[in-house]
What does this fold into?
Amino acid sequence: MGVLPVAARTECSVQAPSAVVMVRPHGFTVNTETATDNHFQTLTADAGDLAPLAYAEITRAASMLRDQGVTVHLFEGEDRDAPDSVFPNNWFSTHAGGYVAIYPMKALSRRRERRSDIIEMLKRRYRVQEVIDYSGLELDGVFLEGTGSMVLDHIDRVAYAVRSERTDRIALERFCTQFSFEPMVFSAKDPSGFDIYHTNVLMCVATDFAMIGLDMITDSVRRREIVHRLGRSGRRIIGLTDAQIGKFAGNAIELLGRNGHTLALSTTALLALTTEQIDIIGESARLLPLAIPTVELAGGSVRCTIAGVHLTPRGDTQ
It folds into this structure.
Protein backbone atom coordinates (compact mmCIF):
# COMPACT_ATOMS: atom_id res chain seq x y z
CA MET A 1 0.00 0.00 0.00
CA GLY A 2 1.63 3.24 -1.13
CA VAL A 3 1.60 6.77 0.19
CA LEU A 4 -1.64 8.57 -0.56
CA PRO A 5 -1.64 11.67 -2.79
CA VAL A 6 -1.54 15.10 -1.17
CA ALA A 7 -4.69 17.22 -1.59
CA ALA A 8 -4.41 20.27 -3.84
CA ARG A 9 -3.49 23.34 -1.82
CA THR A 10 -5.28 25.74 -4.15
CA GLU A 11 -8.79 24.65 -3.14
CA CYS A 12 -10.35 27.10 -0.70
CA SER A 13 -12.30 24.27 0.93
CA VAL A 14 -9.37 21.92 1.60
CA GLN A 15 -9.54 22.65 5.33
CA ALA A 16 -13.28 23.24 5.61
CA PRO A 17 -15.57 20.38 4.52
CA SER A 18 -19.02 21.17 3.14
CA ALA A 19 -20.54 17.89 4.36
CA VAL A 20 -20.48 16.18 7.76
CA VAL A 21 -21.63 13.06 9.57
CA MET A 22 -23.42 13.43 12.91
CA VAL A 23 -25.02 10.87 15.22
CA ARG A 24 -28.17 11.68 17.17
CA PRO A 25 -27.94 9.79 20.49
CA HIS A 26 -30.84 7.84 21.95
CA GLY A 27 -29.06 6.48 25.03
CA PHE A 28 -26.73 9.35 25.85
CA THR A 29 -25.12 9.42 29.27
CA VAL A 30 -21.80 10.50 30.76
CA ASN A 31 -19.51 7.51 30.18
CA THR A 32 -17.88 6.50 33.46
CA GLU A 33 -15.45 4.22 31.60
CA THR A 34 -13.77 7.20 29.91
CA ALA A 35 -13.79 9.47 32.97
CA THR A 36 -10.39 8.23 34.15
CA ASP A 37 -8.52 10.38 31.64
CA ASN A 38 -11.18 12.76 30.29
CA HIS A 39 -11.24 15.48 32.92
CA PHE A 40 -13.58 17.63 30.83
CA GLN A 41 -16.43 15.31 31.78
CA THR A 42 -19.02 16.31 34.36
CA LEU A 43 -20.48 13.35 36.23
CA THR A 44 -24.04 13.86 37.43
CA ALA A 45 -26.36 11.80 39.59
CA ASP A 46 -29.35 12.08 37.23
CA ALA A 47 -27.52 11.00 34.07
CA GLY A 48 -30.50 8.89 33.05
CA ASP A 49 -32.47 12.05 32.29
CA LEU A 50 -29.88 13.41 29.86
CA ALA A 51 -30.70 11.29 26.80
CA PRO A 52 -33.71 13.26 25.48
CA LEU A 53 -31.90 16.55 26.07
CA ALA A 54 -28.83 15.43 24.10
CA TYR A 55 -31.08 14.06 21.34
CA ALA A 56 -32.82 17.43 21.02
CA GLU A 57 -29.53 19.34 21.05
CA ILE A 58 -28.06 17.35 18.16
CA THR A 59 -31.34 17.61 16.25
CA ARG A 60 -31.23 21.41 16.53
CA ALA A 61 -27.51 21.58 15.74
CA ALA A 62 -27.93 19.51 12.57
CA SER A 63 -30.83 21.71 11.47
CA MET A 64 -28.82 24.87 12.01
CA LEU A 65 -25.91 23.50 10.00
CA ARG A 66 -28.26 22.58 7.16
CA ASP A 67 -29.67 26.09 7.25
CA GLN A 68 -26.13 27.31 6.51
CA GLY A 69 -25.93 25.06 3.46
CA VAL A 70 -23.81 22.34 5.07
CA THR A 71 -24.79 18.81 4.05
CA VAL A 72 -25.51 16.82 7.22
CA HIS A 73 -25.72 13.03 7.13
CA LEU A 74 -27.59 12.40 10.38
CA PHE A 75 -27.58 8.88 11.82
CA GLU A 76 -29.42 7.49 14.84
CA GLY A 77 -27.30 6.30 17.78
CA GLU A 78 -29.59 3.56 19.08
CA ASP A 79 -27.00 1.34 20.81
CA ARG A 80 -27.42 2.13 24.50
CA ASP A 81 -24.16 0.38 25.28
CA ALA A 82 -22.36 3.07 23.27
CA PRO A 83 -23.04 6.20 25.36
CA ASP A 84 -20.49 8.30 23.41
CA SER A 85 -21.91 7.55 19.95
CA VAL A 86 -22.62 11.29 19.61
CA PHE A 87 -18.85 11.74 18.97
CA PRO A 88 -18.27 9.98 15.59
CA ASN A 89 -15.12 11.92 14.73
CA ASN A 90 -13.10 9.60 16.95
CA TRP A 91 -13.64 6.35 15.08
CA PHE A 92 -13.34 7.40 11.44
CA SER A 93 -12.07 10.19 9.20
CA THR A 94 -12.25 10.91 5.47
CA HIS A 95 -9.59 12.27 3.16
CA ALA A 96 -9.22 13.80 -0.29
CA GLY A 97 -8.54 11.29 -3.03
CA GLY A 98 -11.22 8.91 -1.78
CA TYR A 99 -9.80 7.51 1.45
CA VAL A 100 -11.47 6.60 4.75
CA ALA A 101 -9.60 5.69 7.93
CA ILE A 102 -11.04 3.67 10.83
CA TYR A 103 -9.33 4.02 14.20
CA PRO A 104 -8.46 1.97 17.32
CA MET A 105 -10.32 3.18 20.41
CA LYS A 106 -9.14 2.87 24.00
CA ALA A 107 -12.47 2.28 25.79
CA LEU A 108 -14.31 -0.98 25.13
CA SER A 109 -17.66 0.83 25.03
CA ARG A 110 -16.37 3.24 22.39
CA ARG A 111 -15.41 0.44 20.02
CA ARG A 112 -19.13 -0.28 19.63
CA GLU A 113 -19.53 3.10 17.89
CA ARG A 114 -17.96 1.85 14.64
CA ARG A 115 -20.75 1.32 12.12
CA SER A 116 -20.73 -0.32 8.74
CA ASP A 117 -23.85 1.60 7.64
CA ILE A 118 -21.98 4.92 7.90
CA ILE A 119 -19.09 3.56 5.84
CA GLU A 120 -21.52 2.15 3.27
CA MET A 121 -23.28 5.51 3.02
CA LEU A 122 -19.96 7.19 2.32
CA LYS A 123 -19.19 4.66 -0.42
CA ARG A 124 -22.64 5.15 -1.94
CA ARG A 125 -22.70 8.96 -1.82
CA TYR A 126 -19.02 9.74 -2.37
CA ARG A 127 -16.09 8.44 -4.34
CA VAL A 128 -14.31 6.13 -1.90
CA GLN A 129 -11.24 4.37 -3.25
CA GLU A 130 -10.06 2.60 -0.13
CA VAL A 131 -10.98 2.09 3.53
CA ILE A 132 -7.91 1.75 5.75
CA ASP A 133 -8.72 0.04 9.04
CA TYR A 134 -6.36 0.54 11.98
CA SER A 135 -8.78 -0.86 14.57
CA GLY A 136 -6.85 -4.15 14.84
CA LEU A 137 -4.18 -2.25 16.75
CA GLU A 138 -6.50 -2.38 19.77
CA LEU A 139 -5.40 -5.97 20.34
CA ASP A 140 -1.92 -4.64 21.09
CA GLY A 141 -3.14 -1.82 23.29
CA VAL A 142 -2.33 0.76 20.61
CA PHE A 143 -4.84 3.58 20.18
CA LEU A 144 -5.36 6.59 17.91
CA GLU A 145 -8.79 8.19 18.31
CA GLY A 146 -9.23 9.89 14.97
CA THR A 147 -9.60 13.65 14.75
CA GLY A 148 -9.88 13.77 18.50
CA SER A 149 -6.31 12.51 18.86
CA MET A 150 -5.17 14.53 15.84
CA VAL A 151 -5.95 18.03 14.67
CA LEU A 152 -5.21 17.92 10.95
CA ASP A 153 -3.91 20.83 8.94
CA HIS A 154 -5.03 19.72 5.48
CA ILE A 155 -3.32 22.70 3.84
CA ASP A 156 0.17 22.45 5.34
CA ARG A 157 -0.14 18.65 5.86
CA VAL A 158 0.60 18.59 9.59
CA ALA A 159 -1.01 16.29 12.16
CA TYR A 160 -0.90 17.99 15.57
CA ALA A 161 -1.17 15.46 18.39
CA VAL A 162 -1.03 15.67 22.17
CA ARG A 163 0.63 12.73 23.89
CA SER A 164 -1.92 10.70 25.82
CA GLU A 165 -3.09 7.15 26.47
CA ARG A 166 -5.44 7.59 23.50
CA THR A 167 -2.77 8.72 21.04
CA ASP A 168 -0.02 6.19 20.43
CA ARG A 169 3.09 7.46 18.66
CA ILE A 170 3.44 4.30 16.54
CA ALA A 171 -0.15 4.49 15.30
CA LEU A 172 0.23 8.20 14.63
CA GLU A 173 3.36 7.70 12.55
CA ARG A 174 1.70 4.90 10.61
CA PHE A 175 -1.25 7.15 9.82
CA CYS A 176 0.99 10.08 8.86
CA THR A 177 3.11 7.94 6.53
CA GLN A 178 0.01 6.54 4.85
CA PHE A 179 -1.82 9.85 4.51
CA SER A 180 1.12 12.19 3.83
CA PHE A 181 1.02 14.23 7.03
CA GLU A 182 3.94 15.37 9.16
CA PRO A 183 3.43 14.46 12.83
CA MET A 184 3.80 17.31 15.32
CA VAL A 185 3.63 15.67 18.76
CA PHE A 186 3.65 17.59 22.02
CA SER A 187 2.71 17.29 25.68
CA ALA A 188 -0.06 19.37 27.23
CA LYS A 189 -1.56 19.52 30.71
CA ASP A 190 -4.55 21.28 32.23
CA PRO A 191 -4.21 23.63 35.25
CA SER A 192 -4.56 20.66 37.62
CA GLY A 193 -1.63 18.87 36.00
CA PHE A 194 -3.67 16.26 34.15
CA ASP A 195 -2.71 15.31 30.61
CA ILE A 196 -5.03 16.66 27.92
CA TYR A 197 -6.84 13.58 26.64
CA HIS A 198 -7.59 14.75 23.07
CA THR A 199 -5.85 17.32 20.92
CA ASN A 200 -9.10 18.76 19.56
CA VAL A 201 -10.12 20.19 22.92
CA LEU A 202 -6.89 22.20 22.88
CA MET A 203 -6.81 23.57 19.35
CA CYS A 204 -8.72 24.27 16.14
CA VAL A 205 -7.04 24.83 12.78
CA ALA A 206 -9.08 26.76 10.22
CA THR A 207 -8.12 28.09 6.80
CA ASP A 208 -6.99 31.57 7.89
CA PHE A 209 -6.60 31.25 11.64
CA ALA A 210 -5.81 28.78 14.40
CA MET A 211 -7.06 28.77 17.99
CA ILE A 212 -4.83 27.04 20.52
CA GLY A 213 -4.28 26.83 24.27
CA LEU A 214 -0.60 27.69 24.19
CA ASP A 215 -0.19 27.86 27.98
CA MET A 216 -1.08 24.18 28.28
CA ILE A 217 1.85 23.08 26.09
CA THR A 218 4.51 22.07 28.60
CA ASP A 219 7.62 22.40 26.41
CA SER A 220 8.37 26.04 25.57
CA VAL A 221 10.57 25.06 22.60
CA ARG A 222 7.82 22.92 21.14
CA ARG A 223 5.33 25.70 21.78
CA ARG A 224 7.38 28.11 19.68
CA GLU A 225 7.74 25.50 16.93
CA ILE A 226 3.97 25.03 16.76
CA VAL A 227 3.33 28.77 16.63
CA HIS A 228 5.93 29.11 13.87
CA ARG A 229 4.47 26.23 11.89
CA LEU A 230 0.93 27.56 12.11
CA GLY A 231 2.04 31.08 11.28
CA ARG A 232 4.14 29.94 8.34
CA SER A 233 0.96 29.09 6.46
CA GLY A 234 -0.25 32.68 6.91
CA ARG A 235 -2.71 31.92 9.67
CA ARG A 236 -3.41 34.30 12.52
CA ILE A 237 -2.81 32.65 15.88
CA ILE A 238 -5.52 33.09 18.51
CA GLY A 239 -4.16 32.12 21.90
CA LEU A 240 -6.75 30.62 24.24
CA THR A 241 -6.51 30.77 28.02
CA ASP A 242 -6.84 27.72 30.23
CA ALA A 243 -10.29 28.95 31.25
CA GLN A 244 -11.37 29.27 27.62
CA ILE A 245 -10.17 25.75 26.88
CA GLY A 246 -12.22 24.58 29.85
CA LYS A 247 -15.25 26.14 28.16
CA PHE A 248 -14.51 24.21 24.94
CA ALA A 249 -13.36 27.27 23.00
CA GLY A 250 -10.75 25.13 21.23
CA ASN A 251 -13.27 22.45 20.24
CA ALA A 252 -14.59 24.10 17.08
CA ILE A 253 -14.57 23.22 13.38
CA GLU A 254 -14.54 25.30 10.22
CA LEU A 255 -17.11 24.22 7.62
CA LEU A 256 -18.05 25.47 4.17
CA GLY A 257 -21.66 26.53 3.63
CA ARG A 258 -23.54 28.36 0.92
CA ASN A 259 -22.33 31.71 2.25
CA GLY A 260 -18.69 30.73 2.66
CA HIS A 261 -16.66 29.64 5.65
CA THR A 262 -18.44 29.05 8.97
CA LEU A 263 -16.90 28.28 12.36
CA ALA A 264 -19.19 25.91 14.23
CA LEU A 265 -18.68 26.08 17.99
CA SER A 266 -20.82 25.81 21.09
CA THR A 267 -22.63 28.66 22.78
CA THR A 268 -20.51 27.85 25.83
CA ALA A 269 -17.37 28.39 23.75
CA LEU A 270 -18.61 31.59 22.12
CA LEU A 271 -19.41 33.17 25.49
CA ALA A 272 -15.83 32.43 26.59
CA LEU A 273 -14.22 34.26 23.66
CA THR A 274 -13.19 37.90 23.84
CA THR A 275 -14.49 40.55 21.45
CA GLU A 276 -11.06 40.77 19.84
CA GLN A 277 -10.93 37.03 19.24
CA ILE A 278 -14.41 37.05 17.75
CA ASP A 279 -13.45 39.91 15.44
CA ILE A 280 -10.38 38.01 14.17
CA ILE A 281 -12.46 34.92 13.43
CA GLY A 282 -15.14 37.05 11.79
CA GLU A 283 -12.67 38.39 9.24
CA SER A 284 -12.67 35.04 7.43
CA ALA A 285 -15.56 32.98 8.84
CA ARG A 286 -19.00 33.57 10.27
CA LEU A 287 -19.51 32.14 13.75
CA LEU A 288 -22.30 29.63 14.24
CA PRO A 289 -22.95 28.93 17.93
CA LEU A 290 -24.71 25.65 18.67
CA ALA A 291 -26.29 25.05 22.07
CA ILE A 292 -25.24 21.59 23.28
CA PRO A 293 -24.73 21.96 27.06
CA THR A 294 -25.95 18.45 27.82
CA VAL A 295 -23.62 16.84 25.29
CA GLU A 296 -20.74 18.85 26.76
CA LEU A 297 -21.20 17.06 30.09
CA ALA A 298 -19.60 14.04 28.37
CA GLY A 299 -16.35 15.96 27.91
CA GLY A 300 -16.61 16.95 24.25
CA SER A 301 -18.21 19.78 22.33
CA VAL A 302 -19.17 20.74 18.78
CA ARG A 303 -15.99 19.55 17.07
CA CYS A 304 -16.35 16.14 18.67
CA THR A 305 -19.91 15.73 17.36
CA ILE A 306 -18.90 16.40 13.75
CA ALA A 307 -17.01 14.10 11.41
CA GLY A 308 -16.08 16.11 8.32
CA VAL A 309 -16.47 14.60 4.86
CA HIS A 310 -13.42 15.40 2.73
CA LEU A 311 -14.60 13.28 -0.20
CA THR A 312 -15.83 14.00 -3.72
CA PRO A 313 -19.59 13.45 -4.16
CA ARG A 314 -20.71 10.98 -6.79
CA GLY A 315 -22.38 12.76 -9.68
CA ASP A 316 -25.36 10.41 -9.68
CA THR A 317 -26.29 11.29 -6.06
CA GLN A 318 -26.67 15.04 -6.56
Residues 1-12 have pLDDT under 50 and may be disordered. The domain at 19-312 is CATH 3.75.10.10 (L-arginine/glycine Amidinotransferase; Chain A). The CA atoms of residues 85 and 113 lie 5 Å apart.
